[in-house]
Amino acid sequence: MADTLKVYKGDDVVGTAERGEDGKAKVTVDGLDANTDYATGTYQVSFSNENGESEKVDVPSFKTKPIAVTGVTIAPKTASVDVDATTKLNSTVAPSTATNKSVSYTSSDEAVATVSSNGTVTGVAKGETSISVTTQDGNKSDTATVTVKAVEEPEPEPEPEEPDTEE
Hints:
This protein is mainly beta. It contains no helices and 16 strands.
């Protein structure tokens, strides 16, 4: 029987692997949080074979890696807004488990429309502009087109004509 590496968290075995011919065993432990420090002794390891199981040894402290951003999408891809009105653009960072989901928004022409840090677009003047969202992690980006429409003022009602009243 080959040596089997067992990884424990408390009394629970959370991973196992057989020792290879090179004397090493590689174990994957699921359920770890990304970008997290784990203290010495949070996990322990032992080897077992036909002769029994070795004493558990503390795993040294370690930090898991962050989950990198792979992309971002902006929605809707096209929007219209009146001058002095607002509309909201939303961003979705991929993967959903990414460690740093921070994004920033920019307008290619702030004379036409401005955009706040949460994706709220305000129409400034008639025209068209691009609104981009960019991730802090990985500098991934996507763009939407926003058309700003001038507000149509209603035609004033003509004054009703007074009927001629001659006496």
